[in-house]
Amino acid sequence: MAITAEIRVGETKLELPVVVGTEAEVGVDIGALRDKTGAITLDPGYGNTGACESAITFLDGERGILRYRGYPIEQLAGPASFLEVAWLLLKGELPNAAELAALVAAEKANRALPAHVERLLAALPQQTHPMAMLSSAVVTLSAAYGEGDGAIAGLPANQLRLLAQLPTLAACIYRRSQGLDFVPPDANRGYAANFLHMMFAGTAKATDDAAIATAMDLLFILHADHEQNCSTSTVRLVGSSQADYFASIASGVCALWGPLHGGANQAVIEMLDEVVRHGGNVQWAVGQAKEKGSHFRLMGFGHRVYKNFDPRAKIIKVQADLVLGKLGQDDAQLDLAKGLEQAALADDYFVQRKLYPNVDFYSGIIYRAMGFPQEMFTVLFAIGRLPGWTAHWNEHNAGKARIGRPRQIYTGKNARDFVALADR
């Protein structure tokens, strides 16, 4: 028996179908609401609005669950490589040995940037924000590849190319900002190891440590997808206009740029630095975070969706210990972060509001330990999120989805007559 919901607007009563997902999620289909009643729903921030049905990622914020194509993030982060997870998100299943070998070989063969992109990056002012450079470079890739030309290693050609070239772009952007020469890709290195080599070769930050490359790969996996977040929704919305792949991904880069989305881990580092300036006093920080008139915010705690522990935060906390230990760095900031977490979780104010550490709380510490400047943190997020953006772009365009076009409730002036300039 089909489940329905009933809504009454004035004297009009409407029965609406209810859609139930494979994880028993319930959605009321309001597609007929405006036509039948003249009313729309009002949901600022879309917190209670399902814009699509999707088979890619399941997220249960109440229970702290994150699964890619049914696989728990805890089982993927570590045993699987980032390229395996990328294939999973894009194709729906984990690759077999032959598929993975072909993907790895194709990725290595397509890392080099088109010449015009290198010229673009060289022409931009050195102080340009890395995310501005990244979005500009991504959208201009369409000049080299257009709408694509078939498949490479089982993936649409343009999607394979961007998967291979985004780390190259990121490394070029960083080295441009530092006044360093570009380092070409090294086909003898894996995905994350090659990225670290292109970033830091010839500098004091250079590392060829396999454990650091493994940690980088794992961080990419943890960021690979997160359901209908701001940037993913942007990619789907822009793609719904039939904008090309590169334009759609560039829109996701721009959405990710914001401090409330991809820039949150940078904000965590800035917050920790402020606590250091106050003597590393975690109780001061907790008190300030609860003070209504205070400018201080406890960054990296709480999440728009999770009302429990972010499962990615548990994994990344372990990585923070491993990476800083491997690099032999002063772990004072990590100790401070742990102390702040412990103090907050012992305080009823945060417990009652379910403000637990999220993935951003420890990721910035790891990135900084590896040698990345804060302005590059969001670029790293973009590299990891690319498979998710692409999978959602594919899913949306594979269906018969309409162009995205939200409605509004108008609150402006009522109709009035134009007044000539001389009479105003």
Provide structural commentary:
By secondary structure, the protein is mostly helical. The chain has 3 domains: 64 residues, Single Sheet (Rubrerythrin, domain 2), CATH 2.20.28; 185 residues, Citrate Synthase, domain 1; 107 residues, Cytochrome P450-Terp, domain 2 (Cytochrome p450-Terp, domain 2). The chain is built from 19 helices and 8 strands. Strands 1-2-3 form a 3-stranded antiparallel β-sheet. It has a 3-stranded antiparallel β-sheet with strand order 4-5-6. A two-stranded antiparallel sheet has the order 7-8. Helix 6 packs antiparallel against helix 12, helix 11 packs across helix 19 and helix 15 runs parallel beside helix 18.
Low-confidence region ranges: none
Order of helices and strands: EEEHEEEHHHHHHEEHHHHHHHHHHHH
CATH C-level name of the largest domain: Mainly Alpha
Number of strands: 8
Computed CA radius of gyration, to the nearest angstrom: 23 Å
Helix content: 40-55%
How are the secondary structure elements laid out?
Elements lengths: L3 E6 L2 E9 L5 E3 L4 H5 L19 E4 L4 E4 L2 E2 H4 L5 H10 L5 H13 L5 H9 L6 H11 L1 H4 L5 E2 L2 E2 H21 L13 H10 L9 H13 L7 H10 L5 H12 L7 H14 L4 H9 L20 H17 L4 H14 L2 H5 L7 H11 L6 H22 L26
Antiparallel strand pairs: 1-2, 2-3, 4-5, 5-6, 7-8
Helix pairs in contact: 3-19, 4-8, 6-8, 6-12, 8-9, 8-19, 9-10, 10-15, 10-19, 11-12, 11-19, 12-19, 13-18, 14-16, 15-18
